[in-house]
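Known limitations

Structure tokens in this collection are predictions and should be treated as such. Users comparing against experimental data should check residue numbering before alignment. To illustrate the layout, the record for Fucose isomerase is reproduced below. The input appears on top and the generated tokens appear beneath it.
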Amino acid sequence: MRKRKFRLGYAPTRRVTFSKEEAGRYRKLILKAIKGFGVEVVDINWLNDEGLLFDIRQADEVAKRFRHEFVDAVFVPHCNFGTEEAVGRLGKKLGLPLLLWGPRDDAPGPDGLRLRDTQCGLFATSKVLRRMNVPFTYIVNSRLDEPVFERGFKNFVAAASAANAFKNMRIGQVAPRPKAFWTMMCNEGELLERFGLEVVPITLSEIVERVKAKVANSRKAIVSKVRSLKTAVDTTDCSEESLQAMVGLKLVLQEWAEEEGLRAIALQCWTAMQDALGVVPCFINGLLTSEGLPVTCETDVHGAATAILLQALALDERPIFFADLTIRHPKRDNAELLWHCGNFPLALKDAKSPTLACHYIMEGNYPGCGEFRLKEGPVTIARMDGDHGEYSLLMGEAKTVAGPLSRGTYVWVEVGDWPLWEERIIRGPYVHHVAAIYGQFASALYEACRYIPGLKPDAVEPTESEIQAWLRGR
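Generated tokens:
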């Protein structure tokens, strides 16, 4: 799904009044450790014979190189006390997520001399970053081989990826929201002003005409893709004509997204599309989401923005799924059904054979709904939403559990205190739609909000204090 790895600008810093040799030693140790975490590192070994930042005049050169290399974030480990004014200028010029950390100091030598005073320098740099309005992430002063460092580093990478994805995102909007769905109202102008979020509209009639033309003019490619679809899922209930319309819709939405540089699509999935094409788009929405282009139902723009955030948390290496919060589990008080008509990504299904069926709710018995349960595992659930000019991001973690069969695509999840979740959703600016992703990412979502002005983190389980304690190593 991802075209390139996360690129991290590595700008280790020292101060001239402390040990140059110790700073150089730690520069190498830290670099070796972070390369083992799977990120692509852009070093400053070209800057001087030390590869260390220790003069404010060097900050401009480093910023220029990092911009040229398109780094996603910057890491400024303090290899001794560090140079706070250089770090401050670098952070201000780049405007990227910034990670602040330094290795825990050793004991003074036999002669009583201290070689690094790293912790003291971290206090100085953090103050300068605050003065210069540079948001930053901090990992508690710790040893390089302690779990808290690896935990904090990986959490920062996920958070930075999500925050960067949220900036200047483009979301395609296929037709207006369904008439009955007042919950899907959004303020397009405010989203642009507040977050740089661009909504790119297109009429449903234009999409339909493009689909019909695609099916008519690309017969060989369409038939080939239909054949592949039949090998992946049971299509007994679908005619050849309807399968061709589905494949045509998928190709047209992909092409439109590439033309417009879209990160996600909010699509009016009923009822005009069924009348025009004779299919529902649910299963195709899931296939596109599997391939890294999330498609949200009922023209949910806020849901599409949430989906982009979640996908970026995992560095675009795994798909999200877009769900309704529907009913509580009949036997487990803290479990809930995550469901939608048939739009979950096929890549996330459990071991049982999936079916491509007709819509069992909508009048007309239109084909195009996936029917399968999702796999087991931990899940992060989120919803970005707002009203009255205020926006927040609901976040929490759950685990999948067994539950009754449901039509469509579904999975049952359990949390620690569902009534707490329910109350938060009812009282907050949220609706019944959520985006979810396999894995535990609530702490990264919380940290991402540090870099998204105007988006307030709303942590349910774990709570804000629990996330902060976990990041400190508790």
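For this record: The chain has two domains: 7-145, 171-471. The longest helix spans residues 240-260. Please report discrepancies through the issue tracker.
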